[in-house]
């Protein structure tokens, strides 16, 4: 099945998640991520601002800041992204595509980020990811080694196997409301 068809199908299903389910399952998935050794070890993490029933990230942000970690959010810059540090969520303002972006100027280079929580339309058991079709994360993460790449999504966004191309960057960890997938351990 082409990427475009899978995107449409999964987005259509995610759209019908109720506000209650979205909140409940977002909390479950975030709690799972917060309990990982990777999160505990990370001194600086990048999150994303959720749009249209994307899994929330606020709890991770609050807990990371509470633990004294550095937290950054992406800001579109041309056809790339900059990760800009925030002190709290009020520093996020509407930006490109109507997504909340950091308003500050403290750009953290990828090399300083120990964990990047990557948004996506779908993820698979091998760490494959389908984004919205613009390739933003593939382009920036392709350039150099970043820290742990974590796909965060609702269970309904997790597929056994997605079509991936050579430019698609693989996740090290996929976290849903039901489980954690560590692709390197499930690879054939
Ligand atoms: P998404 O990851 O958002 O689902 P795709 O993987 O289909 O989207 O990528 C969309 C487009 O982004 C690709 O067709 C390609 O033109 C561009 N792209 C992705 N990664 C790179 C890269 N590393 N270098 C240059 N262009 C890229
Ligand atoms: Mg891609």
Task: Describe, in plain words, how this protein is organized in 3D.
The chain is an alpha/beta fold and 188 residues long. It has six helices and twelve strands. The protein has helices spanning 3-15, 19-34, 37-41, 58-66, 136-143, 183-186, and strands at 44-46, 70-77, 80-86, 92-94, 100-102, 115-118, 122-124, 129-130, 148-152, 158-159, 173-175, 180-181. Residues 131, 135, 138, 168 line the site of magnesium ion.
| Rounded mean pLDDT score | 95
The major sheet is characterized as: 7 strands, mixed
What is the helical fraction, as a range of percent?
A: 25-40%
Bound molecules: adenosine-5'-diphosphate, magnesium ion
In short:
With 188 residues, the protein is an alpha/beta fold.
Record the SSE blueprint.
Layout: H1 3-15, H2 19-34, H3 37-41, E1 44-46, H4 58-66, E2 70-77, E3 80-86, E4 92-94, E5 100-102, E6 115-118, E7 122-124, E8 129-130, H5 136-143, E9 148-152, E10 158-159, E11 173-175, E12 180-181, H6 183-186
Parallel strand pairs: 1-2, 1-6, 6-9, 7-10, 9-11
Antiparallel strand pairs: 2-3, 4-5, 7-8, 11-12
Q: What labels describe this entry?
A:
12 strands; 188 residues; 3-stranded mixed sheet
């Amino acid at each position: 099945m082409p990427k475009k068809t899978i995107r449409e199908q999964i987005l259509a299903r995610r759209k019908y998640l109720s506000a209650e389910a979205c909140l409940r399952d977002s909390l479950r998935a975030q709690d799972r991520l917060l309990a990982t050794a990777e999160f505990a070890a990370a001194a600086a993490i990048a999150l994303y601002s959720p749009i249209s029933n994307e899994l929330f990230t606020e709890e991770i942000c609050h807990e990371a800041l509470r633990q004294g970690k550095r937290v950054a959010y992406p800001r579109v810059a041309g056809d790339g992204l900059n990760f800009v540090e925030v002190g709290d969520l009020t520093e996020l303002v509407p930006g490109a595509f109507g997504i909340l972006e950091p308003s500050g100027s403290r750009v953290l280079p990828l090399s300083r980020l120990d964990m990047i929580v990557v948004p996506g339309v779908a993820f698979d058991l091998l760490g494959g990811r389908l984004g919205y079709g613009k390739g933003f994360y593939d382009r920036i993460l392709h350039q150099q080694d970043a820290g742990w790449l974590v796909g965060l999504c609702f269970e309904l966004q997790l597929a056994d196997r997605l079509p991936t191309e050579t430019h698609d960057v693989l996740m090290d960890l996929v976290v849903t409301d039901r489980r954690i997938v560590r692709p390197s351990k499930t690879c054939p």
